[in-house]
């Protein structure tokens, strides 16, 4: 059987061909000319279906239009539309055509095409040459697919703008960097597999994953610790592609950790301050969440980033008439707050478990007080006035009686920034209330804000997050990245309603009040937010969490004990012929029998689960 993919040289020599492009291995080895022209459409053949025999053969001579290349076609005559239309009308009057046949012919050379070698070819005017789309380059096809994935929205309302404005600069980089090209190819292939999870689409995406990982490893090894724009953008695109391939594999966390490590010291080359800030804004919050749950400080909680965000955020007072500078200052101030929350969480948890450690308790009180007094900054106050508007529509019909209005933001970036700030307020309020609950006397002596003020601010921030849900879900149905981004803020707001329910329930048990409508409404809001988080899980095909697990994790974000089911360590190690991800849990002895029904012979027991890694073993 003749293979259509062979190059012309190997076909004429009747030998095997590896079909590599632009030059196959055999031609490259012998330095021969290598081209792929077999099977390319060379002519358009017009036949009259009324002039065919019963066997389908033409009784009259067909009209043949050779498909010339752009170099063979005169530009002036090919673009003359009036003469083209008149000639086409004349030809239709002479030859009534109703069928189009596309024939594959061997291509002719440019010298041969100038002479009429086909006896049955009818004379055609020069301006009747058809202008058909010519084969596009790989970069052009990749660019079109990437633009299709981005969608027709503007940068301000594009769902991928949660990563920052740098995403709009990627089309100009295609074709200039192999690591960018391979990462974009993996992203568009995984997006196609996300929309159509067929075997063929996922197989194509898996193959492009291997190529992009190879290019990324080579780029990282070549840079030797100084990250470039191409490497950072490719890593972020790899993470996006892994999210499309499936979040339950946790492969996206590999690139998330790599991105955090590359930005930790700020050693970058050839990146302006705006692009670097975009990369940073999208990355640091993932580490903040992980640090709070794991019981450690954020890796960005160092002198470099604290000074950077304090100068450009907390101390900055941009004019409200300069929206770009206002957003930049507000983003830096929110980062200054967020990267210190894991440290306050760690100090609070240590104080609760070690109440006699007065030094750590004093550090927790001082940090909580300083963070409360510094916010909101002037830039945040100005941005809160201009970044959104109130619309008379509820976030969801189920809570229309509780929240009859919702927020509509002027951009996706404003939505992400404002919900992140309100989430940080929820976390800060939860930590201050924990200090009040365990150390009421010390909290008042430390001049922390009044408990009633903190509780009111806690509920207000949770309400603002709930009002933002409608806009987050309406940004894009095909590319639901915005709901995924606000998923963490919704989870954090559960803590505010849980703390309100606990206060109202305690008042009921103490006989001070009866079960009021406020308690019922708080329970409704908590159930609604849990349901909305489950909806986001369903959108991305992630298993739903149990309500008790959610609540225990929320308690950990407020400085309480870390639940046993949360991993204490996640790492990748070589096991046999592949890399595996190991997740370790430390379980106290009294919980072993409760979880597994096994007798507790030891004080504690560590278990680990493994899953294959997409990285190749070297």
TrEMBL record:
<dbReference type="GO" id="GO:0008270">
    <property type="term" value="F:zinc ion binding"/>
</dbReference>
<feature type="compositionally biased region" description="Polar residues">
    <location>
        <begin position="80"/>
        <end position="95"/>
    </location>
</feature>
<dbReference type="InterPro" id="IPR053178">
    <property type="entry name" value="Osmoadaptation_assoc"/>
</dbReference>
<dbReference type="InterPro" id="IPR036864">
    <property type="entry name" value="Zn2-C6_fun-type_DNA-bd_sf"/>
</dbReference>
<dbReference type="GO" id="GO:0000981">
    <property type="term" value="F:DNA-binding transcription factor activity, RNA polymerase II-specific"/>
</dbReference>
<keyword id="KW-0539">Nucleus</keyword>
<feature type="domain" description="Zn(2)-C6 fungal-type">
    <location>
        <begin position="6"/>
        <end position="36"/>
    </location>
</feature>
<feature type="region of interest" description="Disordered">
    <location>
        <begin position="74"/>
        <end position="125"/>
    </location>
</feature>
<protein>
    <recommendedName>
        <fullName>Zn(2)-C6 fungal-type domain-containing protein</fullName>
    </recommendedName>
</protein>
<dbReference type="InterPro" id="IPR001138">
    <property type="entry name" value="Zn2Cys6_DnaBD"/>
</dbReference>
<feature type="compositionally biased region" description="Polar residues">
    <location>
        <begin position="109"/>
        <end position="121"/>
    </location>
</feature>
<dbReference type="Pfam" id="PF00172">
    <property type="entry name" value="Zn_clus"/>
</dbReference>
